[in-house]
Amino acid sequence: MDVPHDWSVELTPVHSAGVNDPALWSVDTPTLYHVRTDIVSDDSVVDITTTGFGFRYTTFDPDSGFSLNGQYMKIMGVDLHATNGPLGAAVHYDALELQMQQMKSMGVNALRTAHNPPAPELVQVCERLGILMMVEAFALAYRQGPLRLRSRRRRSQAGACTRIPSSSTRAKTTRRESAPRPPTTTISPRGR
Known about the structure:
By secondary structure, this protein is α+β, with helices and mostly antiparallel strands. It has 3 domains: 1-55, no CATH class; 58-134, Rossmann fold (3-Layer(aba) Sandwich), CATH 3.40.50; 140-180, no CATH class. The protein is 19% helix and 28% strand.
């Protein structure tokens, strides 16, 4: 597709292509496709990018739970606060891959990133290994207002946290040590 060089006008080129009978991405068979985009100016390629993606569809049903590509499944997830703590903040692709392979071998099929968007390499590893992701865009822990209060109230009612009165305007919370949390999260149909 050719885009005119009139830089005074902002353009967003759109191109559509069809894929007949694509193989669906799933946690067991994470089939990925790739699209290559070339940026050409004056007959010279100035930029090339390749984007991986998969075809899939999901549903959440209050009676049956979660389904991926029409197959109901339990989400067995973990939450990562740091990608590879002992290695520091630098992203090591091999370390991420090893960590996710270990998670997958323990039965994990989903990952929630905590507080900030993950490194693109982590997203690539999860897509390639067949791990669903819930990507948190920003830290809700620092957010004020009704959402935070509802969240605290819900945790307190569930017995996960205990409120401790404080002289400050914000209540402090502490986690009870007597009831350890399981290492995975399971989403199952309501009432079961």
